[in-house]
Specification:
One of its GO terms (cellular component) is cytosol. With about 200 residues, the chain is α/β, with parallel strands linked by helices. Helices cover about 35% and strands about 25% of the residues. The strands form 2 sheets. A 7-stranded mixed beta sheet has the order 3-2-1-4-5-6-7. Strands 8-9 form a two-stranded antiparallel sheet. Helix 1 runs parallel beside helix 6 (about 165-185). The longest helix is centred in the C-terminal third of the chain and has 24 residues, at about 165-185. The chain binds glycinamide ribonucleotide.
Amino acid sequence: PLKLAVLVSGNGSNFQAIVDAIEAGRIINASIVCLISNKADAFALERAKKHNISSIVLDHKGYPNRQAYDAALVELLRQHEVDLVILAGFMRLLSPTMIDAFPNAIMNIHPALLPAFPGLDAQQQAFDYGARYTGCTVHFVDKGTDTGPIILQSVVPILGSDTVESLTQRIHGEEHRTYVEAVRLFCAGRLKVEGRKVIISE
Ligand code: GAR
């Protein structure tokens, strides 16, 4: 089976969705070998405990710069012989140190339809912009911010009755479904990157 590592900073509901999918046999040929959080108080750590998944807190405060932190991250992931790194609300940019160590093997989920509304507070950005549709994007991570090859996207309409909270909640629901599907495809060996494009094979 492929070895997955999930990186988080907070709640971990996307991590939970992937755990549930593996346990239910909806993702096969994969196991989560570790959860890594840069925050000691991330709720995701409790979720890991509940499912007997080993977890590690790697606090960025202990490192002089991003590169040093990422080097520690790479070492940890190599120790665990990780095949796929899954960013699930990991609120740190990755340096070339990480990207070069895992080419086309780091996935991220972003709460908007990229390339619209990259960066922080994407739900708020779409809401404030007055967009009629937003959604979520699962993509491979490259050296830019939210610029990597797109794997899957799901559309969420912005309703007249929405608040940014209700919108965020609906996007979250789509994220769980979309992320599980992207990880499932990866683990089935069905994703191939050609330039900017991700080819999904039968
Ligand atoms: C998700 O909405 C994810 O799209 C977002 O953080 C949330 C984590 O939720 N990620 C980003 O904004 C990345 N820039 P979760 O901890 O419940 O999975």
